[in-house]
């Protein structure tokens, strides 16, 4: 097995919500007080509110820890971006959501992905145009955590290239 053949496993994902366009208008005077919620599994982060705008720009990021990526963790590897309108009275209003399967995105073999994602309703239907959101998604790897993942995998042989970087560091010190 060569170094180029080894599978690369991310331990976290950094999500940046850059901006949105063509959002449904829920506020007065033809604008929104929009914010976005980023969620992976039970971890949630919210952007600030972009007041009185049609195409909000946030440029805000959040990082999420990922389990060892494989098909059995599909629910824990799904990114939800939920666009909301802040209501001054009553409940905030749902504008739309993007549902991104991080397993599929990672399978494309690029660590950084910037793209527009369509917003759909709560049931995943796209019956009405709800707009779209521009996201930058970057897969990252914490080498210490990743080495523990590598060593815990049963179908992978331990070689010079898959041993923990910490072990190599100790060998260099000694």
Automatic annotation (TrEMBL):
GO cellular component: a single term: recycling endosome
Key words, A-Z: Endosome
Protein name: C2 domain-containing protein
Cellular localization per UniProt: Recycling endosome
Boundaries of every C2 domain copy: 1-117
PANTHER family xref list: RAB11 FAMILY-INTERACTING PROTEIN 1 (PTHR15746:SF22), RAB11-RELATED (PTHR15746)
GO BP term (any one): regulated exocytosis
UniProt keyword annotation of Nucleotidyltransferase present: no
Keyword Metal-binding recorded: no
Upper lineage: Eukaryota, Metazoa, Chordata, Craniata, Vertebrata
One MF annotation (Gene Ontology) recorded for this entry: small GTPase binding
Species, as recorded: Sinocyclocheilus grahami
InterPro entries in the cross-refs: C2_dom, C2_domain_sf, FIP_classI
Pfam families referenced in this protein's UniProt entry, alphabetically: C2
């Amino acid at each position: 097995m060569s170094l180029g053949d080894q599978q690369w496993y991310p331990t976290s994902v950094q999500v940046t919500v850059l901006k949105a366009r063509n959002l449904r208008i829920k506020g007065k005077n033809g604008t929104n007080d929009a914010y976005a919620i980023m969620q992976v599994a039970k971890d949630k982060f919210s952007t600030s509110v972009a007041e009185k705008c049609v195409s909000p720009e946030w440029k805000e990021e959040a990082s999420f820890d990922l389990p060892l990526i494989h098909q059995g963790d599909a629910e824990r590897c799904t990114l939800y971006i939920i666009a909301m309108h802040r209501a001054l009275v009553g409940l905030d209003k749902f504008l739309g959501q993007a549902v991104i399967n991080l397993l599929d995105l990672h399978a494309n073999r690029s660590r950084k992905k910037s793209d527009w994602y369509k917003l759909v309703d709560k049931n995943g239907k796209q019956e009405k145009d709800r707009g779209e959101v521009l996201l930058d998604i970057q897969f990252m790897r914490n080498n210490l955590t990743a080495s523990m993942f590598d060593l815990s995998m049963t179908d992978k042989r331990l070689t010079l290239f898959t041993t923990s970087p910490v072990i190599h560091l100790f060998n260099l010190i000694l």
